[in-house]
Structures are given as C-alpha cells and as structure tokens.
Amino acid sequence: MKLNELVRELEMDVKSAVQNLSREVSGGYASDLLSDVMAHADKDYLWVTLQIHQNIVAVAVLKELAGIVIVNGRQPEQETLAKAESEGVPILGTQLATFEIVGRLYGLGLRGRM
Amino acid sequence: MWKRFRADLHIHTCLSPCGNLSMVPGVIVEEALRRGLDAIGICDHNAAENVPAVRKAAEKKRIAVLGGMEITSQEEVHVLALFDDDEKLFELQEKVYENLPGLNDEEAFGEQVVVNENDEVTGLNTRLLIGATNLPLDRIVETIRSLSGLAIASHVDRESFGIIGQLGFVPEGLPLDALELSGETRPHEARALLPQVSGFPLVTFSDAHYPEDIGKRSTSFRVAELEIEEIREALLGREGRGVFFEE
Fold first, then answer.
1. Scanning every residue of chain A, which has its alpha carbon at the shortest distance from the alpha carbon of B130?
2. A38 interaction partners in chain B (CB closer than 8 Å)
3. Cα–Cα dist B57/B140, whole Å
4. I need a surface site. Which of A111, B73, B111, B194 has the fewest CB within 10 A?
5. Given an 8 Å threshold on Cβ–Cβ distance, is A59 in contact with B131?
6. What is the residue range of A59's domain?
C-alpha cells in the first residue's frame, strides 16, 4: 500500500516531505520509546507515535521508515519539521489517538511484524 | 565564609551526537568566562569522556569544572549526574556503558568526538550515546547518590525526555537533589505551571549544545566551597546557604 492512499483514506495532515508520499508502506509499528522503535520497527514501516522532537526523524532515517504518524493532533517542533523536510521523511498528523489510528490502519490492510 | 558561585552545570560537548562540533574545551571555557560563570558542569549524553579535557583546559582559569553525564533511563527520562571527582564519574560511566546497547550511526545522529585539552581530536566514541540505557530511572538515581553524586532530573519543563513529559509525574520517594528547568518556563512561574515539581528544589541551566547558549540560563549557589555536598545542602536551604536563579 502506498503512503498517499493511507493519507487520503484516513484524512491525515501531511506535515513534511510531500514529494515522498508515493512510497510503499510494508507494515506498521506503534511505540513512544525511541529505543523500542530502533529495536522493533522494520524498513518501510509506518511508525505511529506521540513524540514530536527531532530525534524521531533520526530514528526514521536510521530504520528507513516510510513515514511517521503523529497522533492526538500534536504539532511537531520546528526543528523536527525542518529535519524531516531535509531528510525527506514524511510526517503525517492525525487528530486520532494511537489506538484508533492503528485500528484504522489495520482495517486498511496494514500489518505489523508477527 | 559564604561564597557565591554562578554555575551552568548542564553543558554538552562535541562528544554528544547532537552537540555542535565547535563545542570543544577551549571554546567552552572561553565562552563560560565571557558569560561571567564561576562554574560549569560537563554533561554529555551517557558518557563523560571529554570531562578530563575540559578540566585541563580550565586549569589556571578562574572557573571550576564539575564532571558529569546526562544519563538516559529505560523510560527515556534524562537525568544529570554530577561529581566532585572523576573516579566516581568513570565508575558510573562504566555502569552506563554496560547497559547501553547499540552503535552510533553518524549519518542519522551525528558525530561523537573525543578531544584533548588543546581541542585536538583523539578519537570517536562508537556507542549509541543518543540511545536509552537498560537501567530504570530509580536505579540510576540511587546509583548516582550511592556514588556521592548530585542527581538532577533534566529539563522537567520540556516534553521530550523530561521526567514529567515521559512519566507524567515525579515518582514519590525518588531521591533527586533537584529538578532542572531549561525549556521555556521561568523559575518564578514553574510551581504554578508544573504542580508536579512541588516539594523539589529547582535549578536552571542552559543545556547548551552550541557555544552561544552557554550560560544563557544559570543558577548561583551560596556555599562554603563549590563541592557537590555543599550544593546539595544549598538546595536544601541549610544554614545560610542559598540558591538563586540567574536569567
């Protein structure tokens, strides 16, 4: 599934790297601990988190994630958006909470590592 | 008998992956003197390898250096650990290293440069210093205290990696010496804005990652000598000692 299909279906707000929305998403992971994401997220995964600081972009680059979904309508810090833009990491925003957005992503066919 | 020391005890060097490469001992000491500081604390993420170089660079200068570290707990809470003597500090670094998995990726997180007192590169730290240790917060604080160090929860007014942002509260009975403000919150507003801080002494430091931020926020201590035990007593307001915020 492509990132832009998920954006359209779930009415997410694209906050950075609009040029990379055609990227293929292979799965999903939800966590707010960076160390946990580094250990368990896979390449091309969509990561759902409430964290808004710039280290989330570094983790996404390191793990070659397809993008980051920030929940609860939270606004990423300025530095986060600047870094995401320069690194080409799409950050998507949703008003929904983690449980709800993950449920909907799952409903659209996205799966996590089993 | 009392002396007043203006201190910025939370300064990163080029060893921190997020620290600017210009944060070398000579620059840090010069900038701190220019800012009128009497003491600086060197606290890199999960490492203390540049402390001896800064200490040497400050020799014969009118400034004191406290060695420290900013440790990341399992819960991704940042805690400052400050010491009088480097032996205890490196004992703690050993424990941190034993519990810090992973290797750094310079592209993603930045370089981790070890330098000498002449600002020359002597090596690169390859550990994942930006990462979290496997140590729970309470064990980190207890270990710092058992090594006679000062334990301060970092930037409690910031959402990212602050104890209140990560946990929502300050656990009861956690033997922290103080809570640090280094976000937007001014010290006089802190108790109204962050009810969770009540009961803990407050300090404010810069958390400088760039030279121009050194001393931007600092705290003065009225103490007999600039030693960890004296600072601890000052934080408790014991016998004529005191703590003053500098903006």
1. A55
2. 102, 131
3. 29
4. A111
5. no
6. 3-107
Look-up of token digits 């930006």: B130
Give the pLDDT score at B82.
98
In a domain, A103, yes or no: yes
Q: Is residue A79 part of a domain?
A: yes
Phi, psi of B88 (to 5 degrees): -65, -40
Q: In this complex, do A53 and B160 lie within 8 Å of one another by their Cβ atoms?
A: yes
Q: Which of A55, A59, A74, A79 to mutate to test the interface with B (most CBs of B within 10 A)?
A: A55
Evaluate whether residue A114 is within a structural domain: no
What does the domain layout of chain B look like in residue ranges?
3-246
How far away is chain B from the Cα of A38, in angstroms, using its nearest Cα?
A: 9
Could you tell me the pLDDT band of residue B203, with boundaries at 50, 70 and 90?
A: very high
Question: Which of B107, B132, B159 minimises the CB distance to A35?
Answer: B132
Phi-psi region of B104 (alpha: psi -120 to 50; beta: other; left: phi over 0): beta
* A113 located within any domain: no
What's domain B3-246's architecture? Alpha-Beta Barrel (3.20)
Kind of pairing between the strands at A67-70 and A91-93 = parallel
Q: Write out pLDDT tens, residues B161-175.
A: 999 988 888 988 899
Residue of A nearest to B76 (CA): A33
Number of domains in chain A: 1
Element (H, E) at B68: strand B64-72
What CATH number is associated with residue A78?
Answer: 3.40.1390.20
List pLDDT tens digits, range A37-88: 998 999 999 999 999 988 899 999 999 999 999 999 999 989 899 999 999 9
